[in-house]
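Suppose you are handed a protein chain with no further information: no name, no annotation, nothing but its sequence. What can you learn? This example shows the usual starting point.
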Amino acid sequence: MQHHSRPRSIAFPFSRGKFARASLLLNTAIGAALITALTSACVTDLPAEMTDEDAFAAQDPADEFGDVDEEWWDEGPLPEDESSDVDESVDYGLQLAFAPLFQLPFPCNQVWAGQTRTNHSPALSVDFNRADDLGDTVVAAAAGRVTRVSNTGSTSYGRWIEISHGNGFTTRYAHLSVQAVSQGQSVRKGQRIGNVGSTGGSTGPHLHYEQRHNGVAVRASFNGSQAFYYGTRNYRSKNGCGGSGGSGGSGASARVNTSGAALTVRQQATTNSASLGALADGSHVTITCQKQGQSISGTYGTTRLWDKIGSGYVSDAYVYTGSDGRVAPDCP
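A reasonable first move is to predict its three-dimensional structure. Written in structure tokens, the prediction is:
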């Protein structure tokens, strides 16, 4: 990791497109193969009369900022912040790193250019940008607990936020203009946490985003698909788009409480079904839907209700939701 004593500016090619949105809206000469690549990660359903090609001709922030292979620049974390979330780590011997289903850190259906590059700090982080994005809303990529709300001034991350999602997973959001949450606060997936800015080591508004596990940055994924490494691509957010049991819906924020033991995630709503992994005690999770299954006695009494977490199920007897009843729609 390279750290600079002097803020290194993020160099967006504003002069080649920042103020040319009108002309870009008319540009439909985007090949079908490129459209497929650009939309593969997080594309929602489009109106019947609008094709993928039409939509990305109208919203193409990657092209708007010039050559998709042109690299941007910004500063990474201070040395003391590089692994400051190591306290959120979990013992691999006690769990199987059941990861949250992360979504893009922007509201439903927004299209953003995301760039990854080998000389980024950290190298697996993603910079998000689009025209006129100063002050745009930034939302939580998954439910969790806010562990850092910091400001490094004119260097490094500037105004930044870190969220712990349990099981050793954290996310970071940097160069913000506004921080709308406080340390220790629980947040749901899709909840506003701040606004895009250009604070710290940056001279152009953008969001520096990281997905991390056990104190180090990992390859980001959105809605179950890995981000593109390395280069610039467009992504459409499905965060908070709703739908009964849908992966992009905001769901219900909850927390695992087993008094210490890891909680096994099952393929079906019964302990007789296959194990898909485990959730560490205290993990913050998002319940997408609920169903009746095997009766289980746990921390919160005896219940037949099971919660869908990611692609599997856990008994509601071990999950704190703040309610004695259902908090999510019925699973299909």
